[in-house]
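Pinned message: reference record for 1,4-beta-glucanase
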Amino acid sequence: MSTFHLSRRSVLAGTAAAAAVVSLPAIQGRAQAASPAAGGYRWRNVVQGGTGFVTGVLFHPSVRGLAYARTDIGGAYRWDDGTDRWIPLTDHIGWDDWNLLGVEAMAVDPAHPNRLYLALGTYAQSWAGNGAVLRSEDRGATWKRTDLTVKLGGNEDGRGCGERLLVDPRDSDTLWLGTRHDGLLKSTDRGATWKAVSFPATPSATGQGVTLLVAAGRTVYAGWGDSDGTAGKPTLYRTSDGTTWEAVPKQPAGTAAKVPIRAAYDRHTRELYVTYANAPGPNGQSDGSVHKLRTTDGKWTEVTPVKPGGATSDGGTDSFGYGGCAVDARHPGTVVVSTNNRWALVDTLYRTTDGGRTWKSLKDKAVLDVSETPYLKWGGDKPKFGWWIQALAVDPYDSQHVVYGTGATLYGTRDLKRWAPQIRGLEEASIRQLISPPAGEAHLISGSGDIGVMYHERLTASPSRGMASNPVFGTATGLALAAAEPSYVVRAGWGDNGNGAYSNDGGKTWAPFTSQPPMAKSAPGPIATNADGSVLLWSFGAANPGYRSADDGATWSEVASFPKGAVPVADPADATRFYAFDTTTGTLHASTDSGKTFSARATGLNSGDTEFQLTAAPGRSGDLWLSLKWNGLYRSTDGGATFTKVGSCWASYTLGFGKAAEGASYPAVYLVGSTENITAVYRSDDEAKTWTRINDDQHQWGWIGAAVTGDPRIHGRVYIATNGRGVQYGEPS
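Predicted structure (tokens):
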């Protein structure tokens, strides 16, 4: 997927309304520990069908049907061959450890099939926490954890490179871990403790460091990504004794071999195959090559299938790098490699059966079946073979079973011709918005990073309509429905053919706005519609005013009094009212003329908080709830004239509503926040007087602060937007 910014770790900004002074009673202290939900909750993924960057796939060499996958922000998975599903292994990672949901590398022990190791850490930036290593003796069912003193970068450039974690082929107690900026680490107690070891290359503050670790017999090879690829600056090192490292002699040089991406060892021919590119990827590669090293005598041979740089039919340049690399354990000289970042002619897999003398493109005769995941057509008629192909594996027990990862899914084949997503159970979307309509076919509409908006007519199958089209969005920035006319829905987002659309059938089909404000293409932001769907209000970031339309987006007028950068919120019961919270001043603004003008109401609220959210309680006019990350939860029942702090919780990140409990007059309130010592998911059936924790320690999903909403038709059902594990939904078990 993408790098940090707000594209992968989204934040919903909130808003509110006009004229008075905020009421700020003294904080009442932390509430008593919330009681667990009686009988517990059952948690499942809403099925989308992948949607994220699968950065690594690893078949166990000693166990048929056992495989693992890693993602850039959504954790790791184990393949269950009996059910043809991926089992998530890291959902237990909690709010404070959100940085550990990016998986830098994984390793298995060929001699001990139940052992699994994960190197976790999403970002290597100064603001991110350090990495950690998880180690398991039961294939990821339970874990022991070692915190590192270095940072890892599972969602940074180079995340699709080879595994940086390796069990030493000589000794199962010894592990190697390559880092980006801190050299090479070694453990001699199966990952419990780590120490830096002497390595002949010096890491830089901005380079890639170790890009891969691979065993070739009893020798360990390490790729190095900080060199410039010229002679005398090696990119591949090795150790044969586990102590002394040396540069591999006579290795490839030049731009096309600047960064070693992945490597695989053919134990039959004793040859090491290495893919190279001029950048770590997944973006930015324009050159690359494939080479093999005969480990018996040190001879290098270039075996590049197609050299980048050729001309395309439209006069462009066929630029790309090489990424994935996998050998067939059953057939000597049979190897599969992938191109990467090949946008002109689309990425492909090349396969050789003669050690690289000749190659065939598997894309040329491939038949792609995406019937289970229609979004992979990207609003068109046909799916594409893929992009960002760096994860690649050949089943060691089935030569016809090849899988490869893309920026959105994991494709697999059993005959090298017919391909389909092998993705069941693996959901990695970064969710931004959630709507649960009070009527209609779908109980859920979601807005995501990278894959726009989806209409979920079923929660257990990928939406049959795929991504919302007309137009297609990459990332959704806004999603709203008219409370009194729920068949009317609007959306906004990043797109090449328009940035806003409306639906009159609850989100099944869409019509683009016939015009849009001038900044919509460069800064599409949140959008709202009033209670009866007659007015739209669209925001475009802190540098731009808001805009209003009363004709389904045919014409737009500037609203000068709308606070710049605020998120518009419609009153669900009064079509003349909108609200907006200005975080720069801590002021709530309101409109009583259908969004034509706004005026200040409550002032003195917490200012400067970029993670806030304003929510209007359904069916009530002026009943507003304001979540302020650093200052708790506040409620207004007078349209934002005054706010009172809610004393039952001390931190609120996102809040939503669902169907009221039997006998209750107020909707169920769902909260991601803290009523005690941990950040968790809570439900209140008594207007936030008391809370029940409804998730558990095995279902936490890291950072889940973007959106939460209950189902207005089913009491107890709740939908949670995660940053890397798609939409989670829970129901009382």
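Pinned by admin. Summary line: Residues 35-42+429-732 form a domain with the Methylamine Dehydrogenase; Chain H fold (CATH 2.130.10.10).
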